[in-house]
Amino acid sequence: MPPPKDVVKIAIQMVGAIPQLIELQQTKPLASVLKDVCDAWSLPNAERYALQYADGRQIYITESNRREIKNGSILRLTTSPDQEAEQLYSGIQSNNLDVKTDSLKKLASLSQDVTFAQEFINRNGLKQIFSIVEEGKDTGEMLAHTLKAFMELMEHDFVSWETLSATFLKKIVSYVNMNAVDTSVQQLSLSILENMVPTSRLLFELVKKEVTLDCLLNHLQVTNSQLQLKAMALLIALLLAATEDERRDMMDYLREKNIRQFIHKNIIHSSEPLGDEMAHYLYVLQSLSLNLRERRMRTSMDPYVQEQRELLHSLRQVAFESESEAPAGAFSTERRRSLCAKEFRKLGFMNNSNPAEDLRRVPPGLLALDNMVYFSRHTPNAYSRFILENSSREDKHECPFARSSIQLTLILCEILHVGEPCSETAQAFYPMFFGQDHFFEELFCICIQLVNKTWKEMRATQEDFDKVLQVVREQISRTLALKPTSLELFKTRVNALNYSEILKLRQTERLHQEEILAVPVLQLRERLKPELLQLIRQQRLLHLCQGSLFRKISTRRRQDKLWYCRLSPNHKVLHYGDVEEGVHAPPIESLPEKIPVADMKMLLVGKECPHTKEKSSGKQNKDVLELAFSIVYDVEEYCLNFVAPTRYEFCLWTDGLNVLLGREMTSERTQTDLDVLLSMELKLRLLDLENISIPDTPPPIPKPPSNLNFCYDFSQAEQ
């Protein structure tokens, strides 16, 4: 008979004693439980002891978290948090260096526990840590333990970052700016500053002033990948906390200092593989850089602003230089206006008498004008060739440069997500972005020439404008999906993907679609589905058994803390626990926490998850909503909350958990995988029917013969 739900069977250990196996009554006060345990070992003063998990994160058991204890848990009797805090508070003030170092090391470990942290902070322990740092006597390992303990204590949000003294902050900054400092101290100092920046405007300004961009660039050039990562994290934190104008100034300075070359050489093409965290920071840096164009993208042209008017007329002057050189008195005002209108029409403006009207549309607004001017100034020969070539064509077949540029700019903004907030989890960046100054403008220069090339290949007329730009969008998207490493490679590949290639790809996809829509084929698909769905279920469960790495995401920042979750080989228990950076596949024995699959009640996704309700509902959390899921388990309905690193992982995990719950797999990946498997299986089954048209209906069954006297009578033959 199973035990009642308010009773859990556990083991309790103590150094030098035989473990106790007890049935923990969850309704019994914890103080009474401790007294019984101490009495069994004849220990006086039970109030000086506490229970703690023996494995994994060794957190203290309190009245608030005792319900999380599961059957089979192993606990340890240890010193109570208040006693431990008192001892360590004394230990870190000791004159004996060994005692002090050991105390700081233990403090750094125990500070992860919220109960201990509160006790230590209540004893004014942070003040003692401040004094250790401010005095500056301790260095190396001792200082690293001190900074680690400070980080863990501040993580619990009991104390505001704004209460830190100026002396303490300057000391932390000095560790970042000094070269002759232990690497671990520099990494922790960078992490402290990264945590500090988003909390208040005052701290942002202080860090921005004291830690120069040059210093961070120097850290990006070192060979230590962890130091690079922490420096990049602080740089991103500063950029995210800055106002738009400050961010623009910072990005301009970084561009002057060739940050893209540092990143391209020392990070992207480093001998070490790029980690997920660094990939995310590079994505954010790319996104912030592209978003600097948002202001121009959302500003329509004002013909009364002289600067904008001059930019517009420079397009005409570069294209028709010889015609524009005529002296001012050579033509009347009316004649000159007529000539300008004619030239603007040749440039491809729809409203040639007032071309500013074409640029009132937002987006792309003035960004389209900027791109056209950049193209005309940096590749004048290609620009002139585009304009003159189309000027000599018949009216119907000319490719309108301005109209194409405006639409192309909009397409590039949509593909590159210009103006959209940075995702908290995305890692998709383009390596070629860091290989080229003025990436967006240079990409436009390649793509506007692609428009002209595709226009000619399609023999398009003005009525085909939308069709041509649709093909161009497809060419760009398909090429970017290949992740070319440089713009030159992008140019080669996108030009190779000409209109005839696009038609072939479309035809192949269409034929495949038509083939699978024949009635007999549809019937065969339905017969194959159950078997293939079972194959997908097995694959999902296998993925859960291999496990995945998840990040803990807070409202304040993207955390460095990682945890791992995996399913037991017998599919009966989910194991999970915290892991260190760089651990990719921890053994199942090292994951202390467990959830029996039998206790799982339901799966929540997106907005239904408790950890997404706690977060603000701004645009920046949209990606978290798309990747969040939770398991509700046990009668108390506890939740284990996940934020998947990618959409792919989200689909595999939600599918696998649904399989464990005996429910249908609902992710879009299931349908994609099923389509791929069905397509492969159908092709194999229909291999012998190649080039034979399959009728929609089966052939008619012939009528029975008028008589059945066509059988040979063997008995008569024998006579």
Automatic annotation (TrEMBL):
Every ELMO domain range: 307-480
A GO molecular-function annotation: SH3 domain binding
Organism domain of life: Eukaryota
Keywords from the UniProt entry: Apoptosis, Phagocytosis, SH3-binding
GO BP of this protein: actin filament organization; apoptotic process; cell motility; phagocytosis
Keyword S-adenosyl-L-methionine: no
A Pfam family hit: ELMO_CED12
Biological role: Involved in cytoskeletal rearrangements required for phagocytosis of apoptotic cells and cell motility. Acts in association with DOCK1 and CRK. Was initially proposed to be required in complex with DOCK1 to activate Rac Rho small GTPases. May enhance the guanine nucleotide exchange factor (GEF) activity of DOCK1.
Protein name as catalogued: ELMO3 protein
Taxonomic lineage from the root: Eukaryota, Metazoa, Chordata, Craniata, Vertebrata
